[in-house]
Design goal:
2 domains; single chain; mainly alpha; 300 residues; two-stranded antiparallel sheet; 2 strands
């Protein structure tokens, strides 16, 4: 019995196919290297340097930037502000979005219209969103104060400004979360609900014992991504909170602080150290979430 030896190597057609494949993925690979990998490495490098003008003349200073950041109370205040924002945006955004998704999965008139309305904030420019909400929150001419006949300083009172900004974040993200939940609901087999109905389970019991457990993979994904998104919030803070706002110190996020040091004050090494601390914090949170996945996520 002879052994037929196959010729090793690629045919001309396979070589052309591989070349065309590389040609198609090359722009994406270059984009990842230039726009993601290089800035990441450069940020790590700059966090150990006292940066010069226009990225020139960097002087290696070791852990000096990290020591200065760790000793600065403004850093920890900004990190705490960011955590407070996440504590509003993530749980309320997830809960409201889930309820809306379940409601809009029912047979109701105008279902597509309501889905579009709730998703609209996602396609609005952040500048437009900030402008509208700043008008709503305006202490003298705002709609909210006119409705409630009050004189509340919604975004300039340090005690409530962070809550006001968190409400904007919840409003902005509801539509995106809702679409993801609708996709998750469509993956749940109807057999579970039919079996629950046969057992006499009411709609609320079906929601608690069928929908929520089987929707847990989608919920876990949304919670994880929204925590990361909330901890890196910048544009909303930057556009709603003016630099002269009295509540800025109690509401600015850690990324807002990075922007101030790196681009306003020109201290990019200090700003890079702030970013690296935020990255480490996010990695710890992500690690802890991954450890809890098996306990809270159920796959059907």
């Amino acid at each position: 019995m002879g052994i037929v030896k196959k010729k090793m190597g690629m045919t001309v057609a396979r070589k052309k196919e591989a070349i065309w494949g590389l040609a198609f993925v090359a722009p994406t690979m270059l984009g990842l290297l230039i726009l993601n990998f290089y800035p990441m490495v450069n940020t790590v490098y700059q966090s150990f340097c006292k940066t010069g003008d226009f990225g020139k003349g960097n002087v290696f200073v070791g852990l000096s930037n990290y020591k200065a950041v760790a000793m600065d109370p403004t850093t920890w205040q900004a990190l705490w502000n960011t955590v407070k924002y996440a504590l509003i945006e993530v749980p309320f955004g997830v809960a409201i979005s889930m309820l809306l998704a379940v409601f809009l999965q029912q047979k109701i008139i105008g279902k597509s219209f309501f889905r579009t309305i709730f998703f609209l904030p996602m396609v609005c420019a952040p500048a437009a969103v900030a402008m509208v909400w700043k008008w709503l929150y305006n202490q003298q001419f705002g709609l909210l104060n006119n409705m409630f006949h009050s004189n509340t300083a919604w975004i300039s009172n340090p005690k409530i400004a962070w809550i006001s900004v968190g409400i904007i974040g919840v409003w902005s993200i509801i539509g995106y979360n809702m679409v993801l939940f609708i996709g998750g609901l469509q993956e749940i087999p109807r057999d579970y609900y039919e079996a629950a109905q046969i057992d006499g389970a009411t709609g609320i019991r079906q929601f608690l014992h069928v929908t929520i457990p089987l929707l847990s993979p989608t919920t876990f994904f949304i919670v994880q991504t929204r925590i990361i998104g909330a901890l890196t919030i910048f544009d909303l803070m930057f556009m709603v909170m003016d630099k002269t706002n009295l509540a800025l110190n109690k509401t600015q996020s850690i990324v807002y602080l990075f922007y101030t040091y790196a681009f306003t004050n020109g201290n990019r090494g200090y700003g890079a150290a702030i970013v690296m601390i935020l990255v480490a914090f996010i990695m710890v949170i992500t690690f802890l979430l991954q450890k809890t996945e098996k306990r809270f996520v159920f796959y059907n």
